[in-house]
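ok trying again, last paste got cut off:
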Amino acid sequence: MILKKSFTISYSEFNAPHELEAFEQKLIEAATNVAQNAYAPYSAFKVGAALQLSNGVIVKGVNVENAAFPSGVCAEQSAISAAVSNYPSEKPIALAVAAYTNGDLTYEPVTPCGNCRQVIAEEETKNGNEIKIILCGKNKIIVVEGLKNLLPFQFNKTNMES
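nice, full thing came through this time. structure:
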């Protein structure tokens, strides 16, 4: 017997930052500002990420490219690694991502790549909480409540159990 199932994802879409909560606006501002620090000499695609922790601290990260592709690091991974290194007992509660190309914010929001989605999934599993993901573009802002809405079939520690 074939059992057919489906997923439903949920997200909110906004036209401008002022429509969001104050802490979400602050994260977007941090992500867009830090993106300017990205090292992207090959793609000119600068990404910034701002991760809010449970203690209110905002940890930032940027993409860092490398001539020995794919040895670079994504902004989301950079922010999460910095948070784990410097604030190991704090849980991440929200992550904002913004990207620039040709010196301007992208029209559409940029979503985390597959590797970053898996890193975010691991943080949610490790800490037992969903991370709100705020994706900022010039035309709209997308807010996703938890990674399950971006990565429905996650690989996690339960997959490694017998």
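cool. Strands lie at 12-14, 45-53, 58-62, 92-101, 104-105, 132-136, 141-145. The chain has a mean pLDDT of 95.
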